[in-house]
Design goal:
By secondary structure, the chain is α/β, with parallel strands linked by helices. It has 7 helices and 6 strands; from the N terminus they run E-E-E-H-H-H-H-E-H-H-E-H-E. The protein has 3 domains: 13-60, no CATH class; 63-93; 97-190, Aspartate Aminotransferase, domain 2 (3-Layer(aba) Sandwich). Helices cover 37% and strands 14% of the residues.
């Protein structure tokens, strides 16, 4: 998670608008938004066709929980399933990448228990320097010390290995970690 001490500065930019890949501050100065709104404005700001589609959907049905199904969710799920390989045809929608990783962690642990009764398959192998999100499980999987350390101790069961570097730190290293940790304790690799 971000530390917000920097938000106490007096010289913070006040961003008032965005267009394409640029944002404009209250003084009229324009900046390239190289972060794409911290990863969620990948298509750019001010896209009229997106504004129109969102407006139309908001007038019809702004939100409905996933306890049932809605037409837009079903249509998107079908489209995604058509893009996925093989018989992967189920989609689970969440609100963020953190939630997606949190869900993947829970599914992996549940699957480990269901397919290997009596074993305690809970460990997840992750990469140092990998980023997986701000929720507790996702942050536990994150391998960036600066993001993790203010909140430690984090959730147990996450084993970190070095990021791949050519032939070094590849599948053989992961296999060695699985053997060291005990194959009957590892349930997933989250790269």
């Amino acid at each position: 998670m971000m530390q917000h001490q920097g938000m106490t500065k007096d010289d913070l930019l006040v961003i008032v608008s965005g267009d394409g890949c640029e944002v404009t501050d209250a003084e009229g100065k324009t900046y390239l938004d190289a972060y794409a709104g911290i990863w969620n404005i990948n298509v750019g700001y001010g896209r009229q066709e997106i504004i129109d589609a969102v407006n139309e959907q908001m007038q019809q049905l702004a939100f409905y929980p996933q306890t049932q199904i809605s037409v837009p969710a079903a249509q998107l799920a079908a489209k995604l399933a058509g893009l996925l390989p093989g018989d992967i045809n189920h989609v689970f929608f969440v609100n963020s990448g953190s939630e997606a990783n949190e869900t993947a962690i829970k599914i992996a642990r549940q699957y480990g228990r269901a397919t290997h009764p009596g074993e305690n398959r809970y460990k997840i192998i992750c990469r140092y320097q990998g980023y997986h999100g701000f929720t507790m499980g996702a942050m536990s999987a994150t391998g960036q010390t600066g993001r993790r350390s203010p909140y430690e101790p984090l959730a147990p069961g996450f084993v970190h290995v070095e990021p791949p570097d050519g032939a070094a730190h590849g599948p053989d290293e992961i296999e060695q970690v699985i053997l060291r940790e005990g194959p009957d304790t590892v349930t997933a690799i989250l790269a």
